[in-house]
Design goal:
Length: 120
């Protein structure tokens, strides 16, 4: 999956946790993207079976979409914590770098970091 689609799914998850309901306009505001860009991305996510959109424009996850979004969100949180606590990186930089790393890190490396954080 493309990094941008993963970012959209993660953003939908964060917004739904924060507000309950999510529409495309909420995503556009959160990411500071244009409404047409978000509309296109949301349409692709819908076509690929990651989300549903009801008649009122509210976005919900399919099981497949929630699984991917939750996995990315978990990676983001664990990597941010690792960079802050173990690497001694400032919270802002840790957040930014985790957002980049979460899309490219191998499953094996991530599981190793996750185990390390759980054991320490």
């Amino acid at each position: 999956m493309y990094e941008s689609r993963e970012n959209y799914l993660e953003t939908i998850l964060v917004l739904s946790n924060r507000h309950g309901n999510v529409r495309s306009i909420d995503i556009a505001r959160e990411l500071n993207f244009s409404k047409p860009s978000v509309s296109r991305a949301v349409g692709l996510l819908k076509d690929d079976g990651y989300i549903n959109i009801n008649d009122d424009g509210y976005i919900t996850f399919t099981d497949k979409g929630r699984k991917v979004a939750s996995g990315i969100y978990e990676r983001h949180n664990i990597l941010t914590e690792f960079l802050e606590k173990i690497a001694g990186v400032s919270p802002d930089i840790a957040e930014e770098d985790a957002c980049r790393i979460e899309h490219y890190i191998s499953e094996e490396t991530f599981e190793g970091i996750k185990k390390f954080m759980r054991d320490n």
